[in-house]
Design brief:
Length: 176
């Protein structure tokens, strides 16, 4: 974990330009999703697959949060953080993360002051059927170990204060 002050990062999301936000005091949209997910009554096979996938994702996130609380309590929580993108190799990083994020989101340039944790997102790979592996992966993730050789798998999670400097519709709109 590292403390940063007024450091520039990017984020794929929907913040308003010129505003300041405090991150870390409430559930982020990724985790809040689980408060509203589910089905009532009978469901078909496609809905069953979605439900199982969501529960598996929830189990992973709970295990990662349990490990963080137990072993790394001062690190930013994945439940209330936002994900940041460093400015080096920006086009490759945004192309990678854009495949996993809503296409309605914009690219925000942020000035960030707070706590970051840099980890290898490949430890978050889905593993159906054997949950103890998630605990091992969570320890590696929170320890800052890397198993991937690609910089695009670097995940930066953040809690603190952000100021939205600029907002871009696409990567092509960013002038560096």
């Amino acid at each position: 974990m590292e403390h940063i002050q007024d450091k520039i990062f990017y984020h794929i999301g929907n913040f308003d330009c010129g505003k300041t936000y405090t991150i870390g005091c409430q559930l982020n949209p990724f985790f809040d999703y689980f408060n509203h997910f589910g089905y009532e009554g009978a469901i078909d096979w496609d809905e069953t697959k979605k439900l199982l996938s969501a529960y598996q994702l929830y189990a992973r996130e709970r295990i990662f949060e349990d490990v963080r609380t137990e072993m790394f309590p001062n690190f930013p929580s994945r439940m209330s953080c936002i994900w940041l993108i460093p400015s080096d190799n920006l086009s490759n990083r945004i192309a990678f993360w854009n495949t996993n994020i809503s296409h309605n989101s914009k690219i925000c340039k942020l000035s960030c002051t707070g706590r970051i944790h840099i980890a290898d997102e490949s430890f978050l790979a889905s593993r159906f059927g054997y949950l103890p592996t998630y605990r091992t992966d969570a320890i590696q993730y929170w320890s800052g170990k890397f198993q991937s050789n690609s910089f695009v798998h670097q995940e930066v999670i953040f809690t603190g204060t952000i100021y939205v400097i600029e907002k871009y519709a696409t990567l092509n709109d960013i002038v560096q």
